[in-house]
Amino acid sequence: MSFYNQRLVHFQEELTNLNRRYNLVGTFRFLTVLLAGFIIYLTQTSTEGWIWFLLIIPLGLFRYLMSLHEKLSSQMAITQRLIQINQNEIDYLTGGKLPFANGIQHQQVSHPYAFDLDLFGEKSLYQHLNRTATSIGQEALAQQLLNRLPDHKINARQRAIQELAGCAEWRQEFYALAQIGQDTSEEYRAILDWAERKSPPVKPIFRVLAFAVPALLVICLLFFVLTWDTDLLTLAGIVGVINLFLVSRNLKQIQSETVDSERIGIIIKKYSTLIQSIEKQDFKSEELQALKQIYQSQNQAASLSVRQLSSLLAAMNGINHALAAIITNGFYQSHVHTLHQLLNWKAKYAASIKDWLATLGTFETLNSFANFAYNNPDFAYPTLSQSGEVSFKSLAHPLLRREKRVANDVTFHPQFIILTGSNMSGKSTFLRTLGINLLLTNVGSCVCATAATVQPMDILVSMRLSDSLADSESYFFAEVKRLKEIITTLNEKVCFVLLDEIFRGTNSDDKRSGTIEVIKKLIEKRAIGVIATHDLEVCDITADYPEMLSNKCFEAEIINDELFFSYQLLEGICQNRSATFLMRKMGVI
After folding, report:
1. What angle do CA 48, 52, 57 make, to 5 degrees?
2. pLDDT for 349-378, tens place per residue?
């Protein structure tokens, strides 16, 4: 917290200084205009011709001050974002505020765990983690949460996240740069489509004429200045028309290479700045070094190549500005030259641009997990197991505020737990606690525990289902379909399974017998996990499978006519009932 407070004060002071300099430069710009006006006045009152040359001074100063103004404006924009970044982290840590995109567009109801574990939407895991600012990063973070890493990559990912967690200043600067010039997934797709589209080169005859005809125009104008022969001026005009005609012969290809949007060039320039930030940073972990190496595989820095693309696309977009296009193309066929340069760039680098941009998304994803680790220094990185072990010490829900968390030790030996407890006792929260921390393990993140030993595995969940009018499915049928998917997956590999009160949509006898049969099938498939139930008779099955099943519970207590929950995981079967008491307390019965 002190880091964010110090940074906030620092950047607020810096912004004040930048504002002062910005206003001072504005004053000097005004003075240079006055100076230019005074020199023009002198030319009108004096016969000395050399006075006109004095205009070079204010014009040069004005151009320099304009450049300085733009630089200060850019610095102010970055500083403002750094102020907001630190303020957001302070608000998040002190008040639980979540001013971050929630990724609801990535929700997948049919995914094995995304909907049940609240991966996306308000107050979701995605929203807590998300420190991405580009559409590439937002998509990359979502895909990482939806798809676990291969087991052999998790340790390297842990080391990469740990390294970035210690680079808080660099992460913030990268995040601030990424917020300049917001991009969209459509614009990102347009860039990739352009890079993947095959383009023929400019025909050699047009390349030759793009030099020869403008050279003829220059010769005509030069001799006109020397001879003042108006026929030469007429000839120069004809040559200019020929230039425009030659450009028009390439117009279709010129228009097809403009990537449709003036913003594309600005966005690509932002990407080049982000790439340059990565190129300048010295990384130690193998994954970060490998990612950085992607930008060093060509004969020049990737950031320079991408910046060249930005400039070329901006120049190509000038075809949409009629007057400027007529002048520049009429004089020297500017768009033919730019088209040739752009197609040369495409031939050299188009195959790399997808990897370059995807790597930006990977860095934003890693920075998000690193920020999560930095904000939670007491979280542990799990030790990976290959023997099926899953155990946590002081496990809690990472999205709950620190003062509201209740930690529990849990070890899956025996491998499957039947969990009982009264309403509101914490069963569903415990299931999500397990699911989210297993998910964090699978992507190389730290987890909300003081220690953990986990074998990474797929997560299969059935907790929150609904009937579907669109698909003419009842709640019960939707649940049976989900259970079928879980069993089918278990036929192929060992998975971690979380089930919450299955078969709610049927009668008590069917529910009990169905639950018992599902448990038998799960232990037959060597599944690891938890099933929560209110039916205490289901717990009797543990006597038949003591090496594979165990009973655990959450208890409620009634003290002085008030209901209390400890949220502590206990051995055995739940003994206390709270539903009738609560309904009587609320006046329902």
Report:
1. 130
2. 999 999 999 999 999 999 999 999 999 999
Q: If you write DSSP's letter for every residue of 310-370 in order, what string do you get?
A: HHHHHHHGGGGSHHHHHHHHHHH-HHHHHHHHHHHHHHHHHHHHHHHHHHHHHHHHHHHHH
Strands (E) in 41-116, as ranges, are none
Confidence of residue 578 (pLDDT cuts 50, 70, 90): low
Closest CA to 265 of 199, 320, 327, 347: 320
d(Cα 99, Cα 508) in Å, to the nearest integer?
45
Question: What's residue 469's pLDDT?
Answer: 41
d(CA 381, CA 452) in angstroms, rounded, equals 7
Residue type, 528: I
Token readout for 271 is: 């990407």
Other C-beta atoms closer than 10 Å to the C-beta of 228 total: 9
How far is residue 437's CA from residue 458's CA, in Å, rounded to a whole number? 12
Radius of gyration of the chain (CA): 33
Four-way CATH pick for 383-585: 1.10.10.60, 1.10.1420.10, 3.40.50.300, 3.20.20.10: 3.40.50.300
Which residue is listed with tokens 């917020």? 179
Question: Smallest Cα–Cα separation from 419: which of 465, 463, 455, 388?
Answer: 463
Strand partners of residue 559: 562
Contact 202, 250 (CB under 8 A): yes
Tokens standing for residue 8: 């906030």
Contact 28, 64 (CB under 8 A): no
Mean pLDDT, residues 212-234 = 89
Where exactly are the structural domains of the chain?
1-97, 187-362, 383-585
158 CB neighbour count, 10 Å cutoff: 23
Which helix (H) or strand (E) segment holds residue 454: the answer is: strand 451-454
- Residue 414: cis peptide before it, omega within 30 degrees of 0: yes
- Token output for 339: 């088209």
Cβ count near 177 (within 10 Å): 21
Per-residue pLDDT reduced to its tens digit, 250-290 = 988 888 888 665 678 889 999 999 999 999 999 999 999 99
CA dihedral 315→316→317→323, nearest 10 degrees, is 80
CA 202 to chain centre: 38
Helix (H/G/I), strand (E/B), else coil: 75: helix
What are the percentages of helix, strand and coil residues in the chain, rounded to 5? 60, 10, 30
Give the residues across from 343 on adjacent strands: none
